[in-house]
Structure formats: structure tokens, C-alpha cells
Amino acid sequence: MNTQKTDMSLQIERRGIMLVLSSPSGAGKSTIAREVLSKEQNLKLSVSVTTRDRRGSEIDGTHYHFISDREFDRMRDSDSLLEWAQVHSNFYGTPADPVEDALNNGKDMLFDIDWQGGLQLMEKARIDVVSIFILPPSLEELKSRLVRRAEDAPEVIEKRLENAMNEIPHWSDYDYVVVNDDLERAFGQVSAILQAERLRRDRRPGLFDYVNRLIG
Ligand code: 5GP
Known about the structure:
Radius of gyration: 19 Å
Oligomer: single chain
Distance between the termini: 17 Å
CATH topology: Rossmann fold
Strand order of the largest sheet: 2-7-1-8-9
Order of helices and strands: HEHEEEHEEHEHEHHEHH
Largest sheet: 5 strands, parallel
Number of strands: 9
Shape: globular
Helix content: 40-55%
CATH class: Alpha Beta
Bound molecules: guanosine-5'-monophosphate
Number of helices: 9
């Protein structure tokens, strides 16, 4: 009896969610994203294209598609990008095709993008987007996380701190705000948001069939 109930609810058709995570560099967004992606089966990362140089720990095609300026221009001009932005003097963009495929198949996608991209997605796909802004517990902590990461040169770190001051004021455009003072707690909060949003009635057209079957 219980098994049947579970099976039925799993079959309720729903449209995928676009889970947008934004924050200044160093607020822990990528760590939270990695954690959520590893624990959530129905969630895939949207792999962005970027013109910035690959860092030593990054894999082409997994963390980003690393492309030339020319290729970026071509993708942007042919409408192959759902959104794009210039961040820290490099270009970044979200390839459109994988997103549409995922959403139509009821799969959720996670976007680790800046506020400019977040706003573009909210404008284009308001009902599909769930947006979360991650804030650091303090500026000192933000700075020490950037230094600890040590993958960037000191002047790059300075630039990222400066950019953080421009990024933070955009918190108020987002649906949810999570303060990352404790990774486990922040991860738990992002997870809870995702679970709740998946249950929203207006995302689940399959509920009509489900209820019809339920009450015959
Ligand atoms: P990083 O160079 O440290 O990987 O990323 C720099 C910033 O660019 C981060 O805030 C990251 O979220 C953002 N970013 C990464 N991919 C995209 C994208 O496709 N679009 C936009 N708008 N921002 C992105």
C-alpha cells in the first residue's frame, strides 16, 4: 500500500526548476553548489562557456567550456546563449540548448552565475527560476577565503574583493538569501528551498491526472 503510494507520487509530471545561485566570489557558492549537486540526483549543473583562462584544478567541459573570444561572439550573436555577462574582465555565458532539454524532461538545473546573469534568467523565465543569493558572514571571512583559495594572483584577489562590493547590493533581487556562516547549514537551507519549490502546485501539471486517478 505504502509502496504504491510512493510510486504514484513519483510519477507526477512536473517541469524542471532553474536553480540560480549567485554570490560574490569567496562566499562559498561553488562549494555549496558542488555539495547540492552530489546529493541531488535530479539536478544537473549548467556548464557555462567562458573566455577566461582555465585554472589548474579545472576540467574543460566539466567546470566550464573554455572558449576563445571569437567563439564566444559567435555563440552570443547566434542566440545560443540564454544569458551572458562580462565578469572580472572575462566573458561568461549559459548555453541555451541543454537547459531547454533538461526542463522539458522534468530535470532541475543549477546555475552558478553572477547577478547580471541571474537577472537575465529571471526576466526570461520567471516561473521556472528559483533564485538564491549567498552572502558571506563578514568581509574579513570573504577575503580570507579568497586568499586561502590561492588559485589567483594577489591583484586578481583584490579585483574580486572590489567586485564583491558591487555584487552584494544585488541580494535584494533574489527570491531567497542564505548566509554561509556554516557550510552544512547553508547547504541544508539550499536543499530545503529546492525540496519546497519542487512541491509547488504550479510546477506540477501532473497533479491533475494524479488527483483524477486518486478519486476516480
Ligand atoms: P569564476 O571565474 O570565479 O569561475 O567566476 C566568476 C563569476 O562568474 C562567478 O560569480 C560565477 O558565478 C560567474 N559566472 C560563471 N558562469 C557564468 C555564466 O554563464 N553567466 C554569468 N552571468 N556569470 C557566470
